[in-house]
């Protein structure tokens, strides 16, 4: 039976000054994962924790779902203190981790029925609920196939179905669309939107996809190095920037006579001398601000991009800097991230270690079973 829903005015999740450090091990220094992270989630909405790999998103989700303990700070889910009453929290939430929790040697139906039984549903209710979810997630035709035969998108949908088999008040989705093809992502987005619009479920979504947060979330908290650097609605965050974004891809100078390489070929690094020449030239243009150069990608902002772009291109030409391409765009969450952290989201992703002690996924289904 679905849980009693909280009103949209209530706070479903509250994190206050969460701190967490993982031991380094083997002589390595400790790894800070959370450094005073705080945010609040209104009930019945989708809330996105947006940040690059290693930012602390998964650590936050594990603390809120009682799978890990914070070193300091407090957290409440549905009004329940996660540290003082973890069992009660587990009966209230659903959690879908990054890694699958299904048994590949069982069928989709068997996995769902078992998940329902673990969450306290009776045998008949678990079977009925499994059939309902298999149909809802377009898995009915594959219900009695072994999960090991499922595609990545099908397996991910089954993971989410298992997370909501007991109709939780609050659902945690940790990077739910990573690795999915565009069609599967679109289907997952539609299902997440349905959860809040039709079922009034509160959904906390961790993601490193800017478009996902922009599309789904009523509110976003941008996380960087274990802290929330800014929070608000996607539109409000973008509106703070004002004006247009200018993105210019610089090209390599034409090669000297007899040398190899085609003219205008892109190269990975502008070099310090060229970087100074580029930024000085663009900053001198009227109405242009927030000039950043990484590699050979120049980003800037202007009140009127259409008016400023010709002046920027002329300034670069006068400085002897060839241009490969130039575009204008309205403010995006990537621009918000750049403003708040001094680097683009893509740069933060590429700088992140391949595996972070603070953002690996060691949670299992047993962690949220009642």
Question: How would you portray this structure in words?
Answer:
With 370 residues, the protein is α/β, with parallel strands linked by helices. It contains twelve helices and 14 strands. A six-stranded mixed β-sheet has the order 6-7-8-3-9-10, sandwiched between helices. Strands 2-1-4-5 form a four-stranded antiparallel β-sheet, with helices on one face. Strands 12-13-11-14 form a four-stranded antiparallel β-sheet, with helices on one face. Helix 3 runs parallel beside helix 5 (152-163). The longest helix is centred in the middle third of the chain and has 18 residues, at 182-199. The chain is elongated, with a radius of gyration of 24 Å. Residues 1-8, 256-268 and 355-370 have low confidence and may be disordered.
Helix and strand layout, with pairings?
Blueprint lengths: L10 E12 L8 E12 L3 E5 L6 H8 L7 E6 L2 E2 L4 H7 E4 L11 H11 L4 H14 L15 H12 L6 E5 L7 H18 L2 E6 L2 H7 L2 E6 L2 E6 L1 H6 L4 E7 L21 H12 L4 E7 L2 E6 L2 H14 L4 E7 L3 H9 L3 H7 L19
Parallel strand pairs: 3-8, 3-9, 6-7, 7-8
Antiparallel strand pairs: 1-2, 1-4, 4-5, 9-10, 11-13, 11-14, 12-13
Topology order in helix (H) and strand (E) letters: EEEHEEHEHHHEHEHEEHEHEEHEHH
Helix content, binned percent: 25-40%
Terminal CA distance: 15 Å
- Class by helix and strand content? alpha/beta
Number of strands: 14
**Global shape:** elongated
Radius of gyration: 24 Å
Strand content: 15-25%
Detail the poorly predicted runs. 1-8, 256-268, 355-370
- Widest sheet: strand ordering: 6-7-8-3-9-10
Helix tally?
Answer: 12
- Mean pLDDT, rounded to whole units? 86
Which sheet architecture does the biggest sheet show? 6 strands, mixed
């Amino acid at each position: 039976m679905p849980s009693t829903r909280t009103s949209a005015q209530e706070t479903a999740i509250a994190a206050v000054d969460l701190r967490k450090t993982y031991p380094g091990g083997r002589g390595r220094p400790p790894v800070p994962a959370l450094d005073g992270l705080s945010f609040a989630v209104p009930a019945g909405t989708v809330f996105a924790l947006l940040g690059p790999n290693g930012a602390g998103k998964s650590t936050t989700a594990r603390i809120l779902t009682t799978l890990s303990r914070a070193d300091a700070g407090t957290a409440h889910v549905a009004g329940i203190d996660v540290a003082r009453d973890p069992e009660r929290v587990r009966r209230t939430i659903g959690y879908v981790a990054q890694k699958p929790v299904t048994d590949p040697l069982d069928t989709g139906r068997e996995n769902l029925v078992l998940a329902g039984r673990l969450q306290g549903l009776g045998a008949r209710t678990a079977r009925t609920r499994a059939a309902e979810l298999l149909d809802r997630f377009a898995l009915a035709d594959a219900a009695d196939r072994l999960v090991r035969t499922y595609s990545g998108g099908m397996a991910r949908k089954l993971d989410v179905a298992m997370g909501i088999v007991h109709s939780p008040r609050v659902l945690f989705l940790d990077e739910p669309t990573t690795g999915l093809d565009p069609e599967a992502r679109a289907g997952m987005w539609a299902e997440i939107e349905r959860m809040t619009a039709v079922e009034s479920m509160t959904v906390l979504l961790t993601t490193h996809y800017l478009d996902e947060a922009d599309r789904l979330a009523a509110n976003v908290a941008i996380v960087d190095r274990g802290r929330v650097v800014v929070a608000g609605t996607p539109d409000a965050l973008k509106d703070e920037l004002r004006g247009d974004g200018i993105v210019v891809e610089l090209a390599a100078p034409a090669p000297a006579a007899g040398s190899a390489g085609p003219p205008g070929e892109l190269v990975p690094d502008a070099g310090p001398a060229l970087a100074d020449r580029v930024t000085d030239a663009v900053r001198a243009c009227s109405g242009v601000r927030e000039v950043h150069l990484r590699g050979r990608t120049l980003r800037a902002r202007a009140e009127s991009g259409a008016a400023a772009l010709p002046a920027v291109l002329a300034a670069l030409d006068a400085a002897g800097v060839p241009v490969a391409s130039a575009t204008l765009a309205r403010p995006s969450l990537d621009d918000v991230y750049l403003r708040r952290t001094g680097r683009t989201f893509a740069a933060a992703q590429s700088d992140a270690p391949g595996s972070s002690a603070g953002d690996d996924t060691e949670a299992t289904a047993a962690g949220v079973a009642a």
